[in-house]
Amino acid sequence: MKVIVCVKQVPDTSGKVAVNEDGTLNRASMPVITNHDDKSAAEAALRLKDKYGCRVVAVTMGPAAAESMLRDLLAMGADEAYLVSDRAFGGSDTFATSQIVAAAVHRIGVEPDDIILCGRQAIDGDTAQVGPQIAEKLGLPQITYAGDIALEDSGAVVVRRMLEDGYMTIRAKTPCLITCIKELNPPRYPSVSGIMECYEKPLTVLTYEDLKDEPLIEPDTIGLKGSPTNIAKSFTPPLKGAGVMLEGADRNTVTDLVSRLGAKHII
């Protein structure tokens, strides 16, 4: 059994967001981090490895600099990693990205007892589309918004799916794809031995030439040219002003609150 975890290196959107003229993010000018939901997915994969002894394979699509993120995951305990990187993949939207990542996963191979884990969504797009699209293109069942993952003796996976007003428990056969929320579990820190060993673990770079013969890859459905999404405008939203805190539980505080809400036409 192996767990393939799909991760993404994203711009740190807590600072200023730089945008190119074509509407795409200028990633080279911004500091990058590992997407939060993806780190939780990676931790979920490592916990399955700790409990069941499975192999963990990390996959990302991005520039050559994304190798550092994969090395971090190898230091945390992943067994091998794949960097999907080529200029032909640049500018891909969610449709094109899922096409490319699905082809990479297909090349790695999905066995009957395998699980694919993804983060719920990436903070640079917040679409929550790539994971489900990968599942669709691979013809796999999918479970989204996982807040807990367990395996049964029969080999089935049981997922506690978190909803806005409650939760849903779903049982599915493998292979399947699961998207994980950030609250699933806090990611571990790499150990000293893990850091020392991470450069000895295999990290394979997959280019367009490596994937062009995969049945899921077509030249006109990858990269900016193959992306049906059109960006009208990208910008950094203005920061919200500081809020006002009213203290006390007396009549004067209530009167003040009602007055402020009335002045803003909220009530």
How does this structure look, described?
- With 267 residues, this protein is of the alpha/beta class.
- Helix content is 28%, strand content 23%.
- It is built from seven helices and eleven strands.
- It has a nine-stranded mixed beta sheet, sandwiched between helices. It has a two-stranded antiparallel sheet with strand order 2-3.
- A hairpin with a 5-residue loop joins strand 7 and strand 8.
**Largest sheet, strands/sense/barrel:** 9 strands, mixed
Total beta strands: 11
Helical proportion?
25-40%
Principal-axis shape: globular
Strand order within the widest beta sheet: 9-8-7-10-6-1-4-5-11
What is the CA-based Rg, rounded? 21 Å
Going by helix content, strand content and strand pairing, the class is alpha/beta
The H/E string reads EEEHEHEHEHEEEEHEHH
* Nearest-integer average pLDDT: 89
Distance separating the two termini: 58 Å
How much beta, percentage-wise? 15-25%
Number of helices: 7
Low confidence ranges: none
Question: What's the topology here?
Answer:
Elements: E1 2-7, E2 9-11, E3 32-34, H1 36-52, E4 55-61, H2 67-76, E5 80-84, H3 94-108, E6 115-119, H4 130-138, E7 142-151, E8 157-163, E9 166-172, E10 176-180, H5 192-197, E11 203-206, H6 208-211, H7 251-263
Parallel strand pairs: 1-4, 1-6, 4-5, 5-11, 6-10, 7-10
Antiparallel strand pairs: 2-3, 7-8, 8-9
Helix pairs in contact: 3-4
Short description:
The chain is of the alpha/beta class and 267 residues long. The protein has helices at 36-52, 67-76, 94-108, 130-138, 192-197, 208-211, 251-263; strands at 2-7, 9-11, 32-34, 55-61, 80-84, 115-119, 142-151, 157-163, 166-172, 176-180, 203-206.
